[in-house]
Prior knowledge:
Blueprint: H1 2-11, H2 13-43, E1 50-55, E2 60-74, E3 80-89, H3 93-96, E4 100-104, E5 108-112, E6 118-122, E7 127-137, E8 140-143, H4 149-193, H5 200-238, E9 241-246, E10 252-256, E11 260-264, H6 271-287, E12 290-291, E13 296-297, H7 300-331, H8 336-348, H9 353-376, H10 391-416, H11 419-427, H12 432-461, H13 496-506, H14 510-545
Antiparallel strand pairs: 1-2, 1-5, 2-3, 3-4, 6-7, 6-11, 7-8, 7-9, 9-10, 12-13
Amino acid sequence: MERRISYFRQKGDSYIFAASLGLLLSLMMVAWIVVIILVKGLGFFWPRDVVAVTMTDGEKYMGEQWEEKTDKFFNEDGTYYMLDRFQLKIGNRDLYGLDFKWLKKPEVQSETRPEKAVVFERLEYGNFYGTISELHFLDKKFDQQNANLIEQTGEAHEAAVEMRETVEDLKHQLALLSEPLTQLQREINILSLSAEGRTTTGQKRLADLQVEAEKMEQEIATEYQLLTDRLTELITREREIYVVTTTADGREKNIQLSEVVRFYLPNSMGIFAKSWHYLGKVWEFVADDPRESNTEGGVFPAIFGTVMMVILMSIAVVPFGVMAAIYLNEYAKQGPVTRFIRLSVNNLAGVPSIVFGVFGLGFFVYFVGGGIDQFFFSDKLPEPTFGTGGILWASLTLALLTLPVVVVATEEGLLAVPRANKEGALALGSTRWQMIRKVVLPNAMPGILTGLILAISRGAGEVAPLMITGVVKLAPTLALDGTFPFLHLDRKFMHLGFHIYDVGFQSPNVEAAKPMVYSTALLLILIVILLNLIAIYVRNNLRKKFKTSTF
């Protein structure tokens, strides 16, 4: 028996079995997470049937059934019993104060699927579940006796949405019209509060600015009044388009159609109509702006911010990482100093990411950004321009965080270039830099791209450093737009990783935000995979091109 155990240990089968078991468990956990994210994330957009439930105590609810489970409850004598429950998304948050309600199955008296049940997706207060009793379309009124009530509601909704967009456009025009005057008023206020404003020169400057402000106000007065009158008229007409709805328990509520994103009757929709609705919701999620504290709508600003931050980070980290690796491998004298530098670089990879965030806040934001404000944007102080968090500082902080990955991968790529190729180039009379540029770098490019792939994977998922260097819950404008200088590196931005954290753990309505967490996590995984696939495609092409490299 003792010989058999000894032989078993010597052969190492037990270690092979333990290693394979660890790999299997790891793969199973990853697959389990991916499957949950796929099911929960993709299923969120499918229009579910609306059920009307009557309880034995007379309470009535209408909504979408989400989850079912069996819970343990205790009697007064300490014994327990199992009870089936299901979660109903009842919506109507402005009426009930909550979106979801758990109901006990044995207490359900009846359950129906009303064909005329309508789901209103609103700009505020989430979904509304009920039936349409009346439609008020300007000076016209339609009730349930009208056979085309739903079609007419659709026409009224289109008109109301068009009015809402016109109202928003007019508000934007008013803001643009008054912006120069607002900036001038701000300059007057800053000057009047400063020490310069109390001097003779300052008083004269203040008087000139006030005259200029009065003149500007007179110039825009007529156009401003016209836009204001038009805006008031449109808002009044917009308020005349609404529906009267009835909830499951008989309450009536007026809903302004201009505040409705879309409405639909899921119980009367076929598979094709539901599929079309599903695709529309997916597109809205990818291409639209968020609403309802990020728990509804889309995540386009977060997608844009994530991709742009990764691109800026890659632009920053690759040149520095490659230059550092070339110097360490090709120029530096190998000895204790270079070994210490390599050890330091490797240890940087183990530093907690929040430490990099604190460093980025202190060095990039306060020191570098504050210095730029002092030299180039002193007229805007004390309001900071670069001396506050922004996409540039967040990208540089992540570049610093991922620098060890690029340095190590690039060094491995450089070492993989055959020594004979280097010596051959030098023997033909080329300088060391020509040898590096023409022989080493092209052959080491797959290794450099491997480092970039690892950096993208690490940087795209990091959240902690971004929370103090520029990411925000909701960014009103993108970092890239049509306004000069087009790329605004000082602006704050949204990020998918922070969006998951914010919606999932900071939202006051966690139950309503849960599907958004799964969907955003799925999207983040897909974006990271896409970025990696692009880099892998480029790397594979380079490998084919430089077959002499053994890397």
